[in-house]
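Narrative of accomplishments. A recurring question from our advisory board has been how the design workflow behaves on a single, concrete structure rather than in aggregate. To address it, we present the structure tokens for one chain from the evaluation set, followed by the sequence designed for it. No filtering or post-editing was applied between the two.
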């Protein structure tokens, strides 16, 4: 049976590994956000207040394509709707005052929830949740600031090939989730809707419609449960 020191060491290594790729995505987000005509202050505020990589990339993607602000906001909200369920699952980690619970809710991510739920010891699970959340928050926002400053300096990200970072980031976020048949069906259905609508609808609409692809996965048997 692993000792407490071994458990803490594993949790720390997991948090640092996740922080490394969060930093890369944070820089990419900062560059792409400023290229979509967001100021450095607006870009940093989005990361500080929203703190949700997929939703933030969706917002920037819609704005960069010329979509309406409302479509960008709805896209982000749709992607973040899964946190309604996550919030109920991580409730045991957020005991305390209203301020403490509000801070804990802000630190909720796929990674902080998954790592905490994987811990068999309740106290270590709480520790893992908070450590992972705080580390990711600091690294993501630092990366965003660096990326925003770099993006403002270089102007058009296409000059350095950084315009490819947005689709690459979405693929990187998507691939680990395709663990079972329902999720793969949902992803393919969403991609199909987006491809069909892109040539004939305003920017932002294909992303909103792609979210409906998730409904296809609800009707497909064969899903597996995991910690997330």
């Amino acid at each position: 049976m692993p000792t407490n020191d071994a458990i803490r060491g594993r949790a720390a290594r997991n948090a640092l590994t996740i922080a490394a790729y969060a930093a890369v995505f944070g820089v990419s987000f900062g560059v792409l956000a400023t290229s979509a005509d967001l100021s450095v202050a607006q870009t940093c505020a989005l990361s500080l207040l929203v703190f949700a990589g997929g939703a933030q990339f969706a917002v920037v993607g819609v704005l960069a394509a010329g979509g309406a602000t409302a479509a960008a906001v709805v896209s982000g909200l749709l992607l973040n709707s899964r946190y309604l369920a996550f919030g109920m699952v991580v409730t045991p980690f957020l005991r305390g005052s209203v301020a403490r619970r509000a801070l804990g809710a802000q630190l909720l991510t796929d990674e902080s929830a998954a790592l905490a739920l994987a811990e068999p010891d309740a106290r270590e699970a709480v520790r893992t949740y908070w450590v992972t959340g705080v580390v990711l928050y600091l690294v993501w926002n630092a990366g965003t600031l660096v990326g925003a400053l770099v993006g403002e300096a270089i102007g058009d990200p296409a000059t350095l090939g950084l315009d490819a970072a947005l689709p690459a980031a979405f693929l990187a976020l998507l691939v680990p989730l395709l663990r079972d048949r329902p999720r793969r069906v949902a992803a393919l259905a969403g991609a199909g809707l987006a491809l069909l609508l892109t040539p004939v609808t305003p920017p932002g609409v294909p992303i909103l419609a792609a979210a409906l692809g998730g409904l296809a996965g609800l009707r497909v048997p064969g899903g597996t449960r995991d910690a997330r």
